[in-house]
TrEMBL record:
This is Adenine deaminase. Gene3D superfamilies: Metal-dependent hydrolases. Binds 1 zinc ion per subunit. It comes from Myriangium duriaei CBS 260.36. Keywords: Cytoplasm, Hydrolase, Metal-binding, Nucleotide metabolism, Nucleus, Zinc. PROSITE patterns: A_DEAMINASE. It catalyses: adenine + H2O + H(+) = hypoxanthine + NH4(+).
């Protein structure tokens, strides 16, 4: 269906679908307005407008976010932006605001990433971030019934020893034992930063009974996806370059390994020229399981419903195909079977 045939009624249908979001960095839900407000409240100096005019106002910053040239160009703003987050309440408010917005767009289950090392290096400890996020999740769960899980991600541009230190820390181990997060991920710059050095971290994490995922096949090639699976990842974040390797495509379909795809992010970071180039059609035709996610909604082009609408405009999927995507997302979630059954029940009613 060409874009001009997209009916407004389809947006109501897309909104009504019971969605699971698996690829959302909470730091990427920090809007320019909140960034400026928290910078003042927490006395964190922003770059001066003479060094970077983007920091003149929230409007100019939002405008700058529309012209990222690469993952690293974005990451520079993303790491600078999150420096305004200091207190548990900052993380709680950010998490709650994201979940409220997500709920209004039909998200019924969310698995939320954060980057502990990016906070630790500024003196913000693991528990500050985690306790704030958990409070935001609890509030949203009580108010909207959204189920949530939290996934700390290690930064692949830092040495694996640094991730190992976090993994061995008392705060990480105690929270893992209390099951305050469900697994770990790996994010940040992909090209030139292979996953292999993190193998020891990944094995130890698995030994703690935690789940494993990693960003791979976003900026880097399909070989990074194969490597991520070799070290024990159960799902892949992005993974769109998997189509470069037909055997790997067959394998993930056969083994029901889910890809958490982020179409608007791919376009914003120039991984793809347009949403139409994201291999949604190939994935559906070859039985590759995937979910559709926003990644960093305040930086990279929008929230989850924007992503669903963009995919519908590009591919004109049938209602049954949308239900298949939502079923893949439910089945690929890391919540328990009881919750999955509830979500599948919601999907049946659509
Ligand atoms: O899309 C991403 N890729 C890698 N690292 C990230 N950190 C936040 N978002 C991303
Ligand atoms: Zn991401």
């Amino acid at each position: 269906m060409p874009a001009s045939d997209f009916k407004p009624a389809d947006e109501a249908f897309l909104r009504s679908l019971p969605k699971c979001e698996h690829h959302l960095h909470i730091e990427g839900a920090l809007s320019p307005e909140v960034l400026f407000r928290l910078a003042t409240r927490n006395s964190i100096p922003l770059p001066s407008p003479s060094s970077d005019p983007a920091y003149t106002s929230p409007t100019t910053l939002a405008q700058r976010y529309k012209s990222f040239t690469s993952l690293d160009d974005f990451l520079a703003y993303y790491y600078r932006g999150m420096a305004v987050l200091l207190h548990p309440a900052d993380y709680e408010d950010l998490t709650y605001a994201y979940l409220a917005r997500a709920h209004s767009e039909g998200v019924r289950h969310a698995e939320v990433f954060f980057d502990p090392q990016a906070h630790l290096e500024r003196g913000v400890d693991f528990d500050t971030v985690l306790s704030g996020m958990r409070a935001g999740c609890a509030k949203a769960e009580a108010e909207f019934g959204t189920s949530t899980l939290i996934i700390p991600c290690f930064l692949r541009h830092l040495p694996a020893d640094d991730a190992w230190t976090v993994l061995q820390s008392e705060a990480f181990r105690a929270a893992a034992e209390r099951r305050e997060f469900v697994g770990i991920g790996l994010d940040s710059s992909e090209a030139g930063f292979p996953i292999a050095p993190f193998e020891k971290v990944w094995r130890a994490t698995k030994g703690m009974g935690l789940r494993l995922t990693a960003h791979a096949g976003e900026e880097g090639g399909a070989e990074n996806i194969a490597e991520a699976l070799r070290v024990g990842c159960e799902r892949i974040d992005h993974g769109v370059r998997i189509v470069e390797d037909a055997e790997l495509v067959e394998r993930v379909a056969r083994e029901k390994i889910m890809l958490s795809v982020c179409p608007l992010s791919n376009v914003a970071l120039r991984v793809k020229k347009s949403v139409a180039e994201v291999p949604i059609r190939e994935f559906l035709d070859r039985g590759v399981r995937f979910s559709i996610n926003s990644d960093d909604p305040e930086y990279l082009g929008g929230y989850i419903l924007d992503s669903y609408v963009a995919v519908q405009e590009a591919f004109g999927l049938s209602r049954d195909e949308w239900k298949t995507i939502c079923r893949y997302a439910i089945e690929g979630s890391w919540c328990g079977q009881d919750r999955k059954d509830v979500l599948l029940g919601m999907l049946k009613e659509i």
